[in-house]
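User: Show me sequence and structure for the first protein, then do the same for the second.

Assistant: Starting with the first protein.
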Amino acid sequence: MSDTNAITTNPDVLVIGGGSAGVAAALAAARQGAETLLVERHGFLGGAGTASLVHSFCGLYDLPATPETVARVANPGLVVEFERELLAQGIAHGPVRMGRVDVLMHQPQRLAGFLDSVCRIQQKLQVCLHTEVTGCEADGQRIVEVTLQCRGTIWKVRPRMVVDASGDAVVAALTGHPWEQTPAHELQRPAYIVGIGDADGEALKGDGPLKIAGCLARAIQEKKLPVEAAGAHFRASAGLNEVFLTLDLPGDATDVRSLTGIEMQGREVTFAIVEHLKKALEGFARARITTLPVRAGIRESRRWIGEVVLTEEDILESRSSAHAVANATWPIELRETARGPRLLYPKEAKACGIPLGALRARDLRNVFIAGRCISATHRAQASTRVMGTTLATGQAAGIAATFPEQDTATLAPQVCAILSQLEPAK
């Protein structure tokens, strides 16, 4: 990696961030024939689905109209391909119906290997891991140069088009272009997830979750556990002898002190929870934390201001158009407190169509956006941020980035035409 001569310095498309959105954007752009460079700050791809141990793809399927409705993938192309291959390779199982939604459960460690394989064989795609964006230079309405760094090695690239799939709208922050951020006390809380080994899976069945919740509530009341343990959620993993513990903690992912506190507090509280359950509850006597996340799962930070801002009303009214480039099907999932999610469902079990304008920077002609930092209000983002939807917005942004700069009204039908030729949603 110290020799960057083999890395293209003039890519057609630079994709920043290797989570679900970034991988989809990079694959989509490369498949359209664009020389594509994907940069990711961690040592593996997958973002929240690997680094943060988020073990379910939400938003992958349509909302079921009735309890008997069979799960149906909501978006074409890569979304269908990923669901099929993850199931075929035993990396995922499902879909699993949880109340009024369907999710695909997966193994985070194996998902990282799967994403390696699909990117490695893709022609015209280069991947740089352990690589961060440290600077962006804009000239008028264009990004003309991006500074990259890997462990002290610094180099510059001059991309024709950029897709910001960083999750944190880093290009907007570095260039001073318009972005929004909800006040820290209203942000969707980050999720700190750990893997627990040697816990009896039977302890999570039947009335098991109620017993765990009661045990933790008593411990908090007796000051044996901190109040941050409230709302802890346990779920058996897919295909592994492991249980996942999820803890929602307050914090601002763009503030270094807050982010450091989230990580340290997450470790402190999850270890305390497991140690207490070992002594207090049958089924956890031998439990131990076996897997820590590389980073906390950030649900919300900065959001770009695009040509269009997707709203809560758009989600709840299932608004769409003939030129929508991705379908959002997850309910508005509010995680603003430690009491667990509050779900707001659309009036009808129909998708909200995401317009291309919500994936395009308002004041930068050569920047598209994908993933959790697309142009949306705080509550709309609580629907569109999930991994199934970010795969779809990434795919659309990657395709759009392969076209010469055009007005969005002209470009959107062309993107939709390409999407219509891909493997259909099913």
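Switching to the second protein now.
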Amino acid sequence: MRECQVYSELLPHDTPWEEIEKRRPKGIILSGGPSSVYDENAPRCDERVFSSGLPILGICYGLQLMTHELGGKVEPFQKKEFGQAQVTVDDAASPLFQGLPNQLQVWMSHGDSVASPPPGFRPLAHSSNAPLAAIGNGHMVAIQFHPEVVHTPQGTQLLRNFLSAYCGCSGAWTAGSIAREAIERVREQVGKGRVLCALSGGVDSSVVAVLLNEAIGDQLVCVFVDNGLLRKGEAQQVVDTFGKHLKLNLVHVDATDRFLGRLAGVEDPEEKRKAIGDEFIRVFMREVDSPRVGTVEFLAQGTLYPDVIESTSHDTTAAHKIKTHHNVGGLPKDMPFKLVEPLRYLFKDEVREVGLQLGLPEEMVWRQPFPGPGLAVRVIGEVTRERLDTLREADAIVQEEITAAGLYRELWQSFAVLTPLRSVGVMGDARTYANVVAIRAVTSQDAMTADWARIPHDVLGRMATRIVNEVPGVNRVVYDITSKPPGTIEWE
């Protein structure tokens, strides 16, 4: 919706109708989800949603819920359908498909399907595995596929059709308006209080820092914590960029020993994330007592909506927890700060637009995402100084070769992973038994779905050759060709 420059809000499925009605919506979308309508605790919505007369679009589970609640029939799918599919439009007069071709490439991800539509609904489209890939009855329409992901190339146009033809919306919500609204919300929340901004140097926290500086100026202090889990040369780069060039009030804390101490002996990825999130807060709490930071009431961080979704916070009660993000599920319960999260309901592409609107340089705005827990979730298994050093050198080679090949902006993320595996090799006519490094590169638009990148073989070859030759203790390199889903972008 937002890519169509129409403001939208994300609400839990069980939001009472009175709360929805307060927002005076022009339309409602029932999203996809992992449940079956026949599950014991399957997500439901207030039944008044369907009797409101408002335009409704059901997507995947939303289609199945609409069908089930309005008297149609949903059945377990004999052959589950995940990935690319082709949909044929059966009703070319439907406003939902105006301006679109008769054959659509789409992304499917479902285990149940509609066997018969509710009374008054008619078929609008089908696929080879889903005879009712789209249905409608006038103001209510529903589709089995996902138009919101980049892998449905014409999905945005379909959503735009729903917005205009069904809801009567026009696109006037822009990056400039997002920035202005966020600045006003921060000023309203913070008042005259002081804010500590957790600055990592990544896109999200950088945008937060500049936005807060615009909103509250001298009330802001940025704290950059070097946790020992950063990429090669990254700590100095952050200090130079934000302290020297952007002139922000920046405090640099080297907490490497503290973080590595917390991670000693920890192998489970969830425990890693929670330990890192907790330790960040502990460092901030210590710094608040120091003269260079002083008293602060608020903690600002670059939480995005995908972080919230994957961590299953109170805002997303129906989502399955995929992994805890250190800045959402990893925060300690005794944290003394009030959170300021101006990007909490934005996706990465929106954050980049806001960053450009605020005047951040393109090379900073278009940096590839880097996980908050840093290299800790790219060192599979226990995190040690030695293993971190190995990974840093391998990852630096990946970054250099991707950049030299002109692929950096084309990829969502590209990085190295140090696996817990060792393999036999031959180097200098001698047997070796050394580490295996994996290279991961994906394309995506919002990190909710991703496809593995088809990197030219000669580029992969150069990376592998350099890593084996230049990084001590590595004798094998592999390339990960798993999409999301079923995998996640990070290995942990």
